[in-house]
Design brief:
Helix content is 81%, strand content 0%. It is built from 15 helices and no strands.
Length: 244
């Protein structure tokens, strides 16, 4: 645990050692602000809530999270620093968890910095703050799922661009599995049990459920299991590629 925390702190501080982290956060905040107040019809809706704000998170994460995760292991393998990392008194599992938690914490910092949105809706009206808090939790869990997939894809290749594309494609699939048009297409030829099974594998399904203010154990289990599976696969891939 101590080694994991040391690596976590090193990696998290590493994000802020270059201007890239600050540029990412600024771009994220500008994009989410523009989307919320321009594209989502925030003012036209004439209601104090953040449904439009959270509704675009899956699509925003689809491009921004792979940009964070693509460097997690690809850069280490390309520069050869992964060999140095593995000589430290840390196991592969500790390294995987430490780097993943640092990326997740960085994402959480960017998400927390959107708090002016929350203040704004409370100034304009009386929103259900419990629903907003649950939505923030759901957004962070979804980001964790995206990062888990991204970390695993980053371990597969030395090329960051390939890692980005693979992560984007897989995350898009996980989103579209819960998209109404896709479910309607499947329901046209498959039984209801198959449609429900497909829906249950979608980020969109579980995130939408949480944004209604209900944190169901099934939603927590989905994201928790996905993250754990991805981190396990990440460790296995690194172990297999140690000799590369």
């Amino acid at each position: 645990m101590r080694n994991t925390l040391i690596l976590f702190k090193r990696e998290l501080m590493g994000y802020f050692a270059t201007p890239v982290a600050y540029v990412f956060i600024v771009v994220f905040l500008l994009l989410i602000g523009w989307i919320t107040f321009s594209l989502s019809g925030f003012y036209e809706a004439e209601r104090a809530d953040l449904q439009g704000f959270f509704g675009f998170h899956p699509w925003l994460y689809l491009f921004l999270i792979p940009a964070i995760s693509m460097r997690l292991w690809s850069e280490e393998r390309k520069t050869g620093t992964i060999e140095l990392l593995m000589t430290l008194p840390v196991t592969i599992g500790q390294a995987v968890v430490g780097k993943y938690l640092a990326a997740w914490a960085f994402t959480a910092i960017a998400l927390v910095l959107t708090f002016p949105m929350w203040i704004t809706v409370n100034y304009l009206g009386k929103p259900d703050n419990g629903v907003i808090l649950a939505s923030y939790a759901g957004s962070l869990l979804m980001a964790g799922g995206f990062l888990g997939i991204g970390a695993c894809m980053s371990a597969l290749t030395r090329n960051q661009v390939i890692a980005f594309v693979l992560t984007l494609m897989l995350c898009l699939i996980f989103i579209l599995l819960g998209f109404p048009a896709v479910l309607d297409f499947i329901s046209g030829w498959a039984p209801a049990a198959v449609v429900d099974a497909v829906r249950s594998f979608s980020f969109l399904t579980h995130f939408t459920s949480i944004t209604k203010g209900v944190i169901d154990a099934r939603d927590l289990l989905f994201f928790g299991s996905l993250i754990a599976l991805c981190l396990f696969a990440n460790a296995v891939v690194l172990d297999l590629k140690k000799a590369d």
